[in-house]
Specification:
steroid biosynthesis, lipid biosynthesis, sterol 24-C-methyltransferase, 11 helices, SAM-dependent_MTases_sf, EC 2.1.1.41
């Protein structure tokens, strides 16, 4: 995971300050083990999912969706270019199938976080989101954009933590339907909303948002530059973009069959068209208009 904070200056260029997580410094990206905590869903949330409150996929569509999703990936004859060309369909099928499992077993925030000794999964997730909001410098009443917001767990937490208004951008109808219901239950539906759209073509005017963030979401983009350029466009000059990003470090060897196998397993397990090198992400940020400093 690449943890990054980007600031757009009032001029035509933008300042980017970057810090790598300790995990990235000490581990090859292909040797990171993720451990999920026990189920943290409330009984109410579990019952909601069982009754299809907020989203469902018809039983008759499940096996077909699984087969079509698998065909995009290496183990089933797919390739990177096909995944990139059809990323909308691939990612939508992934989240149509996985969202309820994620929520039941993981909670409303579909991302990882460092765990301190004695800290629960829920506590680590909240801290991770609060830290991001603090790095963004979000102030009460500001307009914030969550790029690739899932069902809105981080959106609701950051909105309540900073007393801001957060818009969640998502191209998956299943997740938006569920997210709207969770916003209503949390009492933030008057200040927070969802917009169904592709983050490669955002339906917002230039300089719309006071802050933008993406939590393990822009990794689904087929083109990092195009995605970052859109974020730059909708962010007000002088404001910040923060992201937790999936990346490969220079330890990755494309000629190593075992490295390629693990990379492919992560891609099929997370609905990713590709996992870019950290250097490629930084290059894309610069091309999008950001100035990068480490």
């Amino acid at each position: 995971s690449l943890q990054s904070f980007y600031k757009r200056k009032p001029s035509t260029s933008s300042q980017v300050s970057l810090s790598l997580t300790s995990a990235l410094r000490h581990y090859s990206p292909i040797h990171i083990t993720f451990i999920l905590d026990r189920c943290i869903m409330s009984k109410t949330g579990s019952l909601d999912l069982a009754s299809n409150l907020g989203g469902n996929i018809d039983k008759s569509d499940v096996l077909t969706a699984v087969e079509k999703y698998e065909q995009y990936h290496v183990f089933h004859g797919g390739d990177e270019e096909e995944r990139k060309a059809n990323y909308t369909d691939m990612v939508n099928k992934y989240y149509d199938l996985a969202t309820s499992f994620y929520e039941y077993g993981w909670g409303e925030s579909f991302h990882f976080a460092h765990r301190w000794k004695g800290e629960s999964l829920r506590e680590s997730i909240k801290r991770h989101e609060h830290f991001l909001a603090l790095q963004l410098g979000v102030k009460p009443g500001q307009k914030v954009l969550d790029v690739g917001c899932g069902i809105g767990g981080p959106l609701r937490e950051i909105a309540r933590f900073s007393n801001s208004s957060v818009t969640g951008l998502n191209n998956n109808e299943y997740q938006i339907t569920r997210g709207k219901e969770l916003n209503r239950l949390a009492g933030v539906d008057k200040t927070c909303n969802f917009v169904k759209a592709d983050f490669m073509k955002m339906p917002f005017p230039e300089n719309t948002f006071d802050a933008v963030y993406a939590i393990e979401a822009t990794c689904h983009a087929p083109d990092a530059y195009g995605c970052y350029k859109e974020i730059f466009r909708v962010l007000k000059p002088g404001q910040c973009f923060a992201a937790y990003e999936w990346c490969m470090t220079d330890a990755f060897d494309p000629a190593n069959a075992q490295h390629q196998k693990i990379k492919a397993e992560i891609e099929i397990g997370d609905g990713l068209p590709d996992i870019r090198l950290t250097s490629k992400c930084l290059e894309a940020l610069k091309q999008a208009g950001f100035e990068v400093s480490i």
